[in-house]
Every structure is written in C-alpha cells, then in structure tokens.
Amino acid sequence: MKVEIKTLADEIRKSIRPPEIMPTNKDPIAGAKGAGKEGKGIRKELEIINLIREFDCSGNTHMLHPRLNNKTVQLLNRLKLASGLDMNRVIAFALHRLFEQHPEIKKFIKTSLENFEL
User: For a tag site, which of 19, 51, 79, 106 has the least CB within 10 Å?
Assistant: First the structure.
C-alpha cells in the first residue's frame, strides 16, 4: 500500500497547473518543428521529463540540503511550475544518473576507502 503525503501547497499547485499536453502527430507545434532540429529537442525534453516523473524516490529516507546558486534555484522553480516536478525529485534523479553513467566515480570512492588509514 503506497501512501503519498501531499501538502496543501502541492494540492493547490496541482489544481491550478494547466493540463499536461503531450504532442502527437496532429499537434501543430510538433508538426511545424518536427521536421527540423527543434522537433527532436522537444521530444527529447518530454522524454527526460517523463523519466524524472517515473523515477521512484519514495523509499528514500535521507534528506540533503544542497547549496545551489540563485539561477539554478530559479530554473528548478520554473521547471516545477511548468511540469510539476519537485526539486528534490529532479536532484535525486540527476545524482542517480550521474553515478549510473560514470561508474568510475564509484570505483574511485571504493579504492580511496580501501587505502584509507586511521
């Protein structure tokens, strides 16, 4: 049984957010840009947003407090307004993908800890 805890602010955001628009072959915006380079960019953006939405971080219990510059925070806030993606989910997804795509980081950590002396 999966229980989601939502704040009042999240419920209000969800109720005022415009409905999700998924481009189709008949979508005039996607059709106009589909032939060019920008059409592929739109599909890629939607693909990434869907991957972040599908990312399961429900079992995560640790809380981090990353220090971000103002531009990054503004961008994440705008992303939340545009797509409804929570900042914590985006950061968790990004870190998960970083370690997944660069296993040498894990190897570095492992060898550094093996060579660590007290």
Answer: 19
